[in-house]
Amino acid sequence: MNSQWIYVNGQFVNKNEAVISVYDHGFLYGDGVFEGIRVYSGNVFQLKEHLDRLYASAHSIRLTIPYSKEELTQIIVNTVRKNELSSAYIRVVISRGEGDLGLDPRNCSNPSVIVIAEALSIYSQDLYENGLKLVSVATRRNRPDVLSPQIKSLNYLNNILVKLESTQSGADEALMLNDQGYVTEGSADNIFIVKNGVIITPPVYLGALEGITRNVIIDVARNLNYQIEERPFTTHDVYIADEVFLTGTAAEVIPVIEVDGRPIQNGKPGEITKHLLHTFRDLVTTAGIQCYPKQGNELDA
Ligand code: PMP
User: Fold this and answer.
1) Hey, is 184 helix, strand or coil?
2) Domain limits at 32?
3) Active-site residue (options: 15, 152, 268, 274)
């Protein structure tokens, strides 16, 4: 791609000119919300679900997004089209906007709205085929009564701190526990284990984001007649699981082959994980909001 167009506060600007104020409270205080969304073969996957979560996060922090969901849908689709992308990762950021150096959001009059779409693959093909290594970290997941993991806010320091810990110990991804020691999620993905044919994921109230991929995989697994349960588990349950995998918009469905130095079974991606990954990959290319409609069904440019 020669040029990349970023949507910034009402207009498309070139990447080099896509700037926001240093007084933006998103920058100064992490005051804002965001979503990461995928486009597969020109289809924006689960856009309604991502927008519902974005508006819920914004509502929770009393931030009014200055567009309706329909308008924001159009902006997202237009950003994909403007960049002529077929498969892409989209980042939507709504920050409190420009204010003064004080914390008070009342001094910020206009939220900033940014949409970035670019071709991106977070994990290498090798990790999808051979699996990744997890390490449980000392840093605990934010308690829901301190900062709810359901708010997908610009405050990702908790996640960044666990990422730093996992990188430091040579693992590919972190496993976060809550203050009771129960497994919650990865730094940016949800976790599932498989034991005796049953697929298990922690309930979100333990301290995990209610991932959209997580919910899709729960549906996919049910449709494939797997037994699926949401219940608490510990690192011990992870170590002795038959299979472990992570889900996320960026991660999709990715096998885990080692946790805290313990191989998961024979240290190879499991059959149920592979089945779910293949079914997920088939689904994503056929479902979603089309960015490039057939003639006669044009969206507004
Ligand atoms: N947990 C966290 C902390 C995340 O940031 C993400 C990525 N959004 C996920 C889980 C996975 O959620 P989703 O499937 O909606 O991308």
Assistant:
1) strand
2) 5-118
3) 152
